[in-house]
Amino acid sequence: MRNVQGMDAPHRWMAVPAGVPGVAWMMVAMLVGFTALNRQFVDVANLVNIGSQSSILLLIALPMTFVILTEGIDVSAGAVAAASSVALGCVMQAGAHTWLGIVAAIGTGTLFGLLNGSLIAWLRLPPFVVTLGTMGMAQGIALLLSGGQSITGIGTAIPVFYNGAVLGVPAPLVVAALAYVLNHVLMYRSRVGIYARAIGGNPEALRFAGVSARAWQIGIYTFAGAMFGIAAVLLTARMSTAHPTASLGLEFDAIAAVIVGGTSFEKGKGGLPGTLLGVLTIGMLRNGLDLVGVPSSVQVSCIGVLVLLALFVEGWKTR
Amino acid sequence: MNHSLASFSSLIKPGENVSKLVSRLAAVLIVAIALSFASDAFLTPGNLLNVLRQASLLFLMASGLTLVVLTAGIDLSIGANVALSACLAGTVIKATGSPLAGAAVALASGTLVGLANGGLVAILRMPSFIATYGMMWLINGYTYYFMAGNTIYGFPHGFRQLGSGYLFSIPVPVYLMLVFLALAALFAGRTIYGQQVYAIGSNPVAARFSGVPVKSRLVLVYTLSGLMAGLGSLVFLARLNSAEGDIGEPLTLPAIAAVLIGGTSLFGGIGTPYGTLIGALLLTLVLNGLNLLNIDANWQPFVTGAIIIVAVLVDSLSRRRQEARA
Amino acid sequence: MNAHTGPLASLRSALPFGSGGSSPDGAPVNAPAGANAGSVLAQHEDQPLLELRGIAKQFPGVRALDGVSFAVRAGEVHMLLGENGAGKSTLMKVMSGVYRADEGEFLHLGEPVQIQSPKDAQALGVAVIYQEFSLVPHLDIAQNIFIGREFPGRLPGTINNARAHVEAKKVLDLLGFDCDTHTPVERLGVAQQQMVEIAKALSQRARILVMDEPTAPLSERETENLFRVIRMLKQDGVAIVYISHRMSEVFALGERITVLRDGRMVGATRPADTTPAELVRMMVGRDVDLTYARRFCETPGVPALVMRGVDSPNGIHDVNLEVRAGEIVGLAGLVGSGRSEVARAAFGIDPVSAGDVEVYGKRRRGEPHQSVKLGMALIPESRKHEGLAVTRSVGDNLMLSGLGKLFPGGWFRPREARQLARDMITELRIATPTVGRRTAFLSGGNQQKIVIGKWLATGARLFIFDEPTRGIDVGAKAEIFALIGKLVEEGAAVLLISSELLEIVHVCDRAYVMREGTVAGHLGRDQLSEENLLALGMHDA
């Protein structure tokens, strides 16, 4: 932080995270590249498809941004979504009301989030190992509740959340937009965003101001868990079944999206617009590679390369 | 006179490391005794040998990881590494019929991955969990692609003995486990590099100030971890007599759990490969117990996850108590 | 010294405190400017704004503050002096409520009060500007100023960013700092960040401002600007506690001076009643073992360490010095002058951006482990953090640097190592029951012996000691000096960094003096005296 400069008045800087231009270039490159390989890429139907599929990822990546801003990480996201999805499935299969199912999903996610937050903020255990552990636990619960099988017969109400539309706009996009608004308000118009950056950037600042960094950290992980629960609803809706392992690994895409979008583990830098672009980038990458016939396993590798690239550039800059 | 008295007392008074090992060994015994009461099937030779074999396989993965954790780092990519090395080696063995060629490939692949991890962590200074996490997905993807959804199976009988065979009625992997234990323990306790690794884990700043080449040593431990994972993959290959893209997946979490249970601290500088061995035994016993008691196999990830959290908690509390005393 | 006539007065009534439950609770000084405030002040004008009596603070194993009494008066600049580790930072944190005092009491305008949390201190008008700023790098200026006290927005749970920017601008304008409040503070220069910190304090309606080494990172022009701001605050009745090592500032700005040493108050005086030499003596005042007799070096050997025109990003520039075999060369200078930085650059801890470092004729570059190969050794300033792994045993620490030399094949032999360690323990008279004892349990003097002993096994010929006798009892000090003496008698070269001027005078063959990041001068054997060292170390301007 200590750069010795003169006492000149700084110009008005655009408050845009430095990583955004990078990911924007990546998106343009992909748009051009994939269209060249397969004209279908830029079909409206396909772009809408990308949007819909990315919406689930967005629901996970947005709260993940907060978590990474606090210099933490949550690798349990996929497993928590699985457990929430299975909870939803069980409730729906038992014939209960739709809203009860949704509550079950969000509730499960919230509980795991609370667990993560408490272990990390209160007991001060390292985030990645803790969430690695809760990932195992959530995975276990998902498998146990579902007996290792998909839960079909969840009724026709839930799938509407993915297949329906509001005023012609596909439902998942609506949900994603609402989620973005919510997260935006939390990040830029409430104390959550400020304190998240402070926890990651300089927790002393909060301490000296008499604010409990721990309480807010627990809140952030809990909120993330709740969002994972909402993502589970969309996921279940998309597949029309609750599957105990379908969402495993989603956290990798989400973390990748956040990092590629410019939010790094460096002292609270980054933001939501970057994450949004990152999600779209990953979505485009997957969709484009699908169209070209690249198998899903390799797609994962490509995303891995992107992430390492983004981190490499970051590491090089701050050497 | 004073000298010998002092050294004698330090011999008989258990050092901290020794008492930790003893208490964990006691835990193993307690669990074993409890299981022998809980289930008739436990004390049968078949089951016990099976437990030993499973624990050995687990230890093969966790031994190299121990060295990494000693530097306060972590390697999340070992499972993927094992899968990649096994698939590559398997392909080569099928193609050339030579287990030695396969072994060479496994070694090379494991070492290269380890080297890459080391570079990311030591030279680019990425946090180890993020670097190895990215690497894990990278390798996973490539392995799946390489295998194209196929499974390789059917290896030469001689080679298969490595994983499934017996020597004097004891499963071969157990001997290999002892070899790995010797290698890891030798490195940690009997080489200057091991001493330097402990120093780096305890206080990386002081280590640097004391002239320890920190970057080189970090690259070394990650490379070793990769190399041992590569070697271990051969045993898995032999045991399963097949290789496919996802054989590495269920291995990472238990390996980490074994290291943590064994008393190696995530914060660095504390722990030994002996501890990891006991940790592997303990974890395998617990999972074996779940099996014998006919508890749903789906409980295993839950139990493993919970064990990791408890182990970290214990590690963190004991660390904090130590710091308070200092 | 009046709250309602100073330049800040009009601002004070207009300045909102911000929100978040930290509004002042009826503390008289924080009432809006007006007739009321004036009469209240007049009543208590002779009483200090804040007085600390008998404050003690204990941490595990160390008594950071012991019976410290300290009074802060409106419109006064109270200078707080002391070495690193003297307790200044702890005192600041106790005053600002970050730490809770174990003993002692606080008085505000003569009335007893409690300071148990940052909010308590804020309510009393205490604000601290830390040396490592408490700013969040990726938040903008306004967000940093009002952190913890955000203005509520229209909808519940939201905050009003626009208002924060408006109010931030008001305070910054007052300080004469023209900027865009949307700038993330990481993009600001140090002086500007300091302004943000001061604005933060002012926006809290601070009546007592504590500043920790504020001019350390500033240029001369920026320092002047800061002084202008301080004078303005003084006029307004703000009390300022100012921590500094720069004697020029102490005498230029200060009205009162308090000196801390090892957690205790060792002097309370006024600039008119004292001299820089006396202050330094109070700050450092270690019991110098003058019984140690040294045979000075008549015929120095080859140059062991040569630094030519060395610059480093750690703050030193154009450093030129030479240490020859058989000599103990001192490196003096006031705290903050760059002495440790010279050691770090010489050894390779910090990079060298210009110039050369030569060790026994060979160019030294790269990481510390390469320096060790050339025969260098560094005994760093902070034993616990830089010199030892305190969680490891005495034996482990003693062996660490020499591993390569003692076990050239790479194979480590624990039994042999333990024996070597035992030999060293005996030779250096390190008081430890066993080789395996955890280093954390040893006394400071013994720990320091381990740090030194660690290097003996490497066959080093050039030793840099950074404050080797700080925090060590007299007996151990003598032993350490005897050791250093023996090293040079056997032909090694020593660079000795010390704040204790008498030590340098007594022990060194000659000395360089650092000032503001570069070598200000050199004193030969005959010229070595406390006065000369001080004169070179201080700003003559």
Short description, anyone?
The complex is a heterotrimer of chains A (319), B (326) and C (541). By secondary structure, chain A is mainly alpha-helical. Chain A is built from 13 helices and 2 strands.
What this model shows, in words?
The complex is a heterotrimer of chains A (319), B (326) and C (541). Helix content of chain A is 71%, strand content 1%. Chain A has helices at 19-37, 44-69, 77-93, 98-122, 127-146, 160-163, 171-188, 191-201, 203-208, 213-239, 250-260, 272-292, 296-317, and strands at residues 165-166, 169-170. The longest helix of chain A has 27 residues, at 213-239. By secondary structure, chain B is mainly α. Chain B has one domain (15-318): ABC transporter involved in vitamin B12 uptake, BtuC (Orthogonal Bundle). Chain B is 77% helix and 2% strand. Chain B has helices spanning 2-12, 16-38, 45-70, 78-96, 99-123, 128-147, 157-164, 172-190, 192-202, 204-209, 214-240, 252-261, 273-292, 299-325, and strands at 152-153, 166-167, 170-171, 242-243. In chain B, strand 2 (166-167) and strand 3 (170-171) form a beta hairpin. Chain B is globular, with a radius of gyration of 20 Å. Chain C has 3 domains: 9-284, Rossmann fold (3-Layer(aba) Sandwich), CATH 3.40.50.300; 303-375 and 461-541, Rossmann fold; 389-458, no CATH class. Chain C contains 20 helices and 20 strands. In chain C, the strands form 4 sheets. In chain C, strands 6-7-8-3-9-10 form a 6-stranded mixed sheet, with helices on both faces. A 6-stranded mixed sheet of chain C has the order 16-17-18-13-19-20, sandwiched between helices. The radius of gyration of chain C is 26 Å and the shape is globular. Chain C starts with 8 loop residues before the first helix and ends with a helix. Classes of the chains: A mainly alpha (319), B mainly alpha (326), C alpha/beta (541). The A-B interface holds A 73, 75, 119, 123-126, 128-130, 132-141, 143-144, 147-148, 252, 255, 265, 295-305, 307-308, 311-312, 315-316, 319 and B 74, 76, 120, 124-127, 129-131, 133-135, 137-145, 148-149, 245, 253, 256, 266, 296, 298-309, 312-313, 316.
